[in-house]
Amino acid sequence: MSEPSGVEPVGAAPSQSTRRPRADWLPQAIIAGLAVTAITVSIILTPSFLTIDNIRAILRNASIVGIVAVAMTPMTLSGNFVSLAISQSSMLAMVSFVAMIGAGWPQPVAILIVILALIVVGIVQGIIVATGLNPIITTLAAGAIIYGVVSEITGGGIIRAGDNLVSWGSSTLAGIPIQVLVFLFFTILVTILMSRTVIGRETMLVGANRATAGISGISIFRVTILAFVIFSVGLALAGILNGAAFNQATARSFPNLTIDVIAALLVGGTAIQGGQGSPLRSAGGALLIAVISNMMVLNDFSTGGRLAVQGGVVVVIVVLLDQMRRRRMASS
Amino acid sequence: MIENFIGRIKPYALPLVVLIITWIVIASITPSFRGAGSVYAVLEGFPMVGLVALGLGVTIIAGELDLSVGSMAALAATIAVLTESAGLVGCIVIATLVGTVLGAVQGTLIGRLQINSLVFTIGTLILLRGLTYISSGNAPIIIQNFMMTDPLLDRYWIFSISSITALIVFILIGLFLTYTRWGREIFAIGGARNEAIAAGVPRVQPLTVSFAISAGCASLAGALAATRGGSAAPQNYADLLLSGAAAALLGGISLYGGRGSVLNVALGVAVLTVVATGLAARGSAASLVQLVTGALLLIMITIEFLAGRLTLKDTIFGAGLRGRSRKTTDTSD
């Protein structure tokens, strides 16, 4: 059967590997060019853009979205599209972390339990998806269930850390906010995992050409589960970091995270069909969106203006990248 | 003759059984959910969730998915309130037309660019939400002439103006999908895209039509809700995607494209509304409704999966599916 028009798995044919350098170079150049343009325009329009405080603010804003976008990249690369349960999962992590701190549990224990709990929730979804159910609908349902359960338990109220306030959430190390450091290390870790390890390369191949990967003896089940585990760790980190920064949480925390993360991932140039992209690019996408948002905030854009520009940027970049990918495949 | 009949009702059997069971369960544990009142309550689900599910259902049949329906409904709600001087019917028609045109543009672009509709509609989801905030001035807006919307609040036995409007749209789109060439082309392009195009079905037009329907339905839903409630808030309706998709899939619209009908959507909407109104009548929070919706959705796609109804289709979800099914044969040896 011929491939469907919109969803050609990117060919892993030998002829393509010779074209690789150009293939990776062009989209990144476009993203980098856009980032440079955005930053240049920002500096010209707003003198306050290039202050240490503002740069710190941009990085801090980019880091939560960035951590989750980086964490989700292996899942997208493996051909499992995106999760629609991002907000709810991070909210679960944040609420449970704050609740445990409030109950007087030691912080390391709380952090460990939150990460393990999120991994369990992720593995359950991973098993369902790996069995063959649609990832979009599975995660949509999972998000509704998680939100429902947390809301029922908390009764819709605010969970507070009480007397056991976490102090390190807003702290900095050598002037760098803790979130930014976590973002940096997590990005390096996932990038190394994806590009330098066997399982990372297997993940890319499964996304590029699932059938070939299966025939080559790669366990698609194992790849999918691992992708969900990495994703869950990112979700847990985002929840813990925000929990530590705010010391309170509700079932409505992280309202826009799902859309922001998917936007960052797509703008970074990771193909939603899988097989193309990298965690580093998703981190870049998160930074680009943060820069543009920051510029608009400094220039007094309204909520609507910011959203419209962000949406417009996402549409334009995504279409551009998709068209380039298409041209390249047509020419190879 | 009898086999023909069984073949015809088979796609509706499972959702119908689920509907009957949920209705009996909810009616037996909720005294207020009985008689004509309960039918009225269930029909009231059609102007909101029903219309959105109908539009989403059409895009799923076309092998695509429109994630932007929530933002589209919010934008239409704002437009309806802003154009109230056109009268009750006028402002609803204007809002619906604007939405339909935007949807047609979106569908044409998706078809022309041959881009994955999930990717494209994530962008327009944000963009349309931004336009909603801009057009409403970043704050909730209210209708000045409250008297105007009174007819919408009247109840006629088990019907209201809103539910009658929604049901008429269901019937019209059902007839369109079943009996017109354009309607059949949507099924063809969703069921087996390359084969359909090879057979002469246009590549772009069915997508233009299905996304116009999905945006039009979402807009009508938003406009009806806004005029009925007398207000529109720019942050509204983000949850519509979940309930709309859940209703379409609960009713038996196949996630793999090319299969399903308006009757499937209607059954799904009825199931979801029975659960939602039943739980609400018992004083449960909206979050519990979400929980049950999510669980039902998961159960339903699992049943569809286990029933082996899925065959390998060239749809938006096909790539993963194709590989997965091969994998099961590959790892068996």
Plain-language structure description:
The complex is a heterodimer of chains A (332) and B (333). With 332 residues, chain A is mostly helical. Helices cover 73% and strands 2% of the residues of chain A. Chain A contains 13 helices and 4 strands. In chain A, a hairpin with a 2-residue loop joins strand 2 and strand 3 (176-177). Chain B has 333 residues and is mainly α. Chain B has one domain (2-287): ABC transporter involved in vitamin B12 uptake, BtuC, CATH 1.10.3470. Chain B has a two-stranded antiparallel ribbon. A two-stranded antiparallel ribbon of chain B has the order 2-3. In chain B, helix 4 runs antiparallel to helix 5 and helix 4 packs parallel to helix 6. The model of chain B is unreliable at 309-333 (pLDDT under 50). The interface between A and B is large, with 69 and 71 residues.
Features:
heterodimer; A: 332 residues; mainly alpha; 13 helices; 73% helix; globular; B: 333 residues; ABC transporter involved in vitamin B12 uptake, BtuC; two-stranded antiparallel sheet; 4 strands
